[in-house]
Please model this.
Amino acid sequence: MKLILLGAPGSGKGTQAAYISDKYDLPHISTGDLFRENIKNETPLGKKIKSVMSTGQLCPDDLTVELVKDRLEEADCKSGYLLDGFPRDIPQAVALDEFASPDVVIEIKVDLAKVEHRITGRRSCLSCGGSFHVDFIGNVSKCPKCGDELVIRKDDNPITVKERLEVYENQTAPLIDYYKKQGKLVVINGDQSIENVFSDIVKVLG
Ligand code: ADP
Ligand code: AMP
Model:
């Protein structure tokens, strides 16, 4: 099963990816997590993308596509993958179609007016990739999943959120039509509880 999770920043892709990955035993590949790991480890890639990422703009397509291509060549992706945050624009989708075209694309559709609250209250774990909200976990400093440090992502502030939403509307949202035309798009209502969103996804995936 080759799956893509599509949706605005804060729509719940990372949250649902963790559940889907567990249930269907698929590697969860988040380009945002991969970039953050490179920044944390101060790799040459991390140094190249650090400043653009902090502005909320997209990292260059060639670097991003190469990162995903390399990751999908790893052994755990042999029987499928779950991509979260990739592709993010049409050139990336076209590139992906050339080396590992998806079977199903799940769009988690949310009211964009609500995502700022979700993003500014997000607490992230850089170790396990876990994503939580202060509304649910309170102001704790340790990851409820792995016990490591929780952080507020540098790009999770109201100014960058605005920028990221514009990037989403201009560059990423055209992918909805792209995959609709390929007959691969499934739309899920993301404006409901985490459990209900997941249960709707399971109904689609079977
Ligand atoms: P994305 O990966 O799409 O950017 P996340 O999965 O990190 O989004 O979710 C963004 C924030 O919203 C997190 O703080 C998460 O806990 C919270 N969240 C995710 N899904 C829901 C939901 N269905 N209802 C309320 N909050 C949610
Ligand atoms: P995310 O963790 O998905 O919210 O992504 C955080 C940031 O990482 C984005 O705002 C971009 O700067 C960068 N990024 C993540 N995925 C991609 C991608 N597919 N293409 C370009 N930039 C990306």
Summary: Residues 9, 31-32, 35, 53, 56-59, 64, 85-86, 88, 92, 155, 164 surround adenosine monophosphate (ligand 2) (CB under 6 Å).
